[in-house]
Amino acid sequence: MYIALDIGGTQLRAALYPLDGLEPIIKKSIPTHNGNEKPETRLLQLIESIWPTNGDVICIGGGVASPVDPKSGLVYHAPNIKGWTNFPLGSTIHERFKTETRLGNDANLAALGEWKYGAGIGHHDLIYLTVSTGIGGGFIIDDRLLVGPHGIAAEVGHITVWPGGPLCGCGKHGHLEAVSSGTGIANYVRQQISAGRQSTLSKAVEDLTAREVTTAAQQGDLLAIEAFNRGGEVPWSGNSRSVAAF
């Protein structure tokens, strides 16, 4: 058997698979953050909770919502996961379970999976974009995954689209993720409400999520609609350039 991990800024997911199948034997999901408990502690507990009582796990593989070195499993900086800067996640998992562990950027692995098993079958080139807590991208070029020497060649979420724009979780300003991700959209609404703007979301400002902003936009809330429009078109040198579609 083998274990697959989906390590995101909002949820940690783990599934146990048979060696010859694509349907999980068991899968579980927990929030990434819970009080002062470290995300890596929660992840190790999650893996342990699906570990088989009989049978061997030959490999643990996972996608991380972060720039990550696929050779070492080092997480360079996870903007939406507390404490994961230059964090040796691969070796942390390996040392706990004594099992081969392979990690990569989640969007890169999603692109690889879509190319191998999904809509990309039969195509030699593919671009995969994910818009969630953050924004990620994966590129297949001439039947090969583009990773670069350090695994960060396709980090589209951290392209600067708005010089001097809002602060990204990585610490830089104006990245696509800071404007157009679920986090960026919710942050904008929260900031506007704090500045005195009226919205049906005013009572939930402290714990506001992109899901709630989406529901409000569908119900006609003007600030929520504005937040999505802003995420779809951001200023660029004084003009408006479309960078995403909602």
Give a short synopsis of this structure.
With about 250 residues, this protein is an alpha+beta fold. It is about 30% helix and about 25% strand. Helix 5 crosses helix 7.
List its traits.
246 residues, alpha+beta, 5-stranded mixed sheet, 3-stranded antiparallel sheet, 7 helices, globular
Question: Could you explain how this protein is built, in words?
Answer:
With about 250 residues, this protein is of the alpha+beta class. Helices cover about 30% and strands about 25% of the residues. The protein has helices spanning about 40-50, 90-95, 105-115, 175-180, 180-195, 210-220, 220-230, and strands spanning about 1-5, 10-15, 25-30, 60-65, 75, 85-90, 100-105, 125-130, 135-140, 145, 235, 240. It has a 5-stranded mixed β-sheet with strand order 3-2-1-4-7. Strands 8-9-10 form a 3-stranded antiparallel β-sheet. Helix 5 packs across helix 7 (about 220-230). The model is unreliable at about 235-245 (pLDDT under 50).
The counted number of beta strands is 12
Proportion in helices:
25-40%
Q: Count up the helices.
A: 7
Mean pLDDT: 90
Report the span from N to C terminus: 39 Å
Biggest sheet strand line-up = 3-2-1-4-7
What is the gyration radius calculated from CA atoms? 19 Å
Helix-strand string: EEEHEEEHEHEEEHHHHEE
List the SSEs and their pairings.
Blueprint: E1 2-7, E2 11-17, E3 26-31, H1 39-50, E4 59-64, E5 74-77, E6 85-88, H2 89-97, E7 101-105, H3 106-117, E8 126-131, E9 135-141, E10 144-145, H4 176-180, H5 182-194, H6 210-218, H7 222-232, E11 233-236, E12 239-242
Parallel strand pairs: 1-4, 4-7
Antiparallel strand pairs: 1-2, 2-3, 5-6, 8-9, 9-10, 11-12
Helix pairs in contact: 5-7, 6-7
